[in-house]
Amino acid sequence: MKYAALLLFSTVFIVFSTLAAADETKTLKLATLSFPPLLHTSQTGQFSGTMGETIKFMCRKANLKCVVDILPFKRVYQKLENNEIDGLITINIPQFQDCCIASRWAAPWAAGFFSPDRLDEIPQTPDDVLGKSIIIVNGMKSPYVFIPNLKNWEKEGKVKVFRASSILEATKMLSNDRAKLLWGSEDFNWYFEKLGTKDRWNFIPLVVRPVVVWVKKEKRDLLDRLNAGYEILQKEKHLNSHNILNHELMEQLYVDAPFEYE
Questions:
Q1: pTM (2 decimals)?
Q2: How many helices (H) and strands (E) does the chain have?
Q3: According to DSSP H, which parts of 24-161 are helical?
Q4: What domains lie within the chain, and their CATH numbers?
Q5: How confident is residue 15, by pLDDT bands cut at 50, 70 and 90?
Q6: pLDDT for 126-140, tens place per residue?
Q7: Which stretches does DSSP call E strand in 11-148?
Q8: Taking the CB of residue 46, how many other CB atoms lie within 10 A of it?
Q9: What are the two backbone dihedrals, phi and then psi, of residue 208, each rounded to the nearest 5 degrees?
Q10: pLDDT value at residue 14
């Protein structure tokens, strides 16, 4: 009887310990790039954006404390390589598959060329950029997805590349006629609206990739929690057709990024 009672106590203790562990809030450390209005540091200094608020809400539902750093391109990848973060928020490309697993949550994203030229005059294949000048943002991976030979062509003088240190600098370079082609994503329109030049450009999407949350393989338990949070958002119908929080929730949570011209 004594042993039976002890066994019962041990079983109950294990069950309650497991439940407590499942309920325990864990921290998921992430990093990403500044891409307002999708992902940015808001006017109040907090992580926000349409995708940002969706990820934060998903973390809340998953009982995860998600800490997100907004960093320059190179610093984001360095932090991942140095094991300073558990994952990153960026597009779904093969280069991260060795270290990480992508979340089930994914939201559409497209990059391509902005130009004052007509749509039928904008390059639509890699060879179309030969002999042209283009602006790219340092650290951005997607131009090399579309133009794998870009570095070689630049060295050989077949393409002239102007590199900007930030999206703001890149959009200002296009606005100041440095070149007729800027490689960027649809969200660059946020900057053009602030600069008052949005109506000057045509945009043609050439690389379409979903944005996901990449989590290191050894942090699979955190990814499982995040995926569970995504399933809750789906069941509770909090997401629109683009996997972003619905309008009502977004209006309550979203805070815009500050805009500084200089």
A1: 0.85
A2: 9, 10
A3: 50-61, 73-81, 142-146, 150-155
A4: 26-109+210-253 (3.40.190.10), 111-208 (3.40.190.10)
A5: very low
A6: 999 999 999 999 988
A7: 26-32, 40-41, 47-48, 64-70, 87-91, 100-115, 133-137
A8: 13
A9: -115, 115
A10: 38
Give the containing element (helix H, strand E) for 25.
none
| Joined tokens for residue 137 | 């943002």
Torsion of CA 116, 121, 126, 129, to 10 degrees: -60
Q: Which amino acid is at 210?
A: P
Cβ proximity of 105 and 230 under 8 Å: yes
237 pLDDT more than 80: yes
SS3 content of the chain, % helix, strand, coil (to 5): 45, 30, 30
| Distances from the Cα of 41 to the Cα of 21, 36, 47, 60, 147, angstroms | 32, 8, 5, 19, 30
pLDDT, tens digit, 9 for 90 and up, residues 30-68: 999 999 999 999 999 999 999 999 999 999 999 999 999
In degrees rounded to 5, what are phi and psi of residue 96?
-95, 0
Separation between Cα atoms, residue 47 and residue 41, nearest integer Å = 5
Structure tokens at 210: 């979903």
Helix (H) / strand (E) containing 210:
strand 202-216
